[in-house]
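Below is a complete specimen:
___
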Amino acid sequence: MPGPLPQRSVAMAPRPVLLPWLTALVALVALGLAGCSTTGAGSGSTRSGRAQRPSGIQELHLLTMPVALNLDGSPGPDGVAVKLFANVGNATKPAPIRSGEIEILLFDGLLSGGSAALPQPSHAWRFTAAELKGFETQAMVGTGYQLTLRWGAFRPKNDRVTLIARHPVGEGRYLYSTPGVIACAP
């Protein structure tokens, strides 16, 4: 009967070359987990089961800063900074928006998850695809839009605001991003 096998000790250290790729992979997974929801099935579908839309936008991802910004130097917050990414057509990563429009909706406080319809937003910004082009930026995950949005006369009554991006898909239906919650002092 043979004796026990010799034990080998192998130290596995992460390779520095793999770190940027690992970071990119984690960022892509996080972006994918951000998710999105729709209120309708859209018009038609593709082989992959995704709805076809004239703009080609299939998903919206809105990444928010954790706190509201003071953009005018007067006491108190008066705006927010966000990054918007859209999955367009069959692209494997976020791609430029070349048609349609996007709305960013701001709600005072947290939205309740049980409501079927959104309440009236406290403020809204609307961008056409042509207007978004001026805010286009390249990131490791793909093309996105970096927006700094002032909310004008609106003053938050709550210590948080909620932001949602939406894209009209026709017949009063919209494609929505996952809500982003931002802290702000009332």
Summary: Helices lie at 18-34, 129-132. The longest helix spans residues 18-34. The chain has one domain: 37-183.
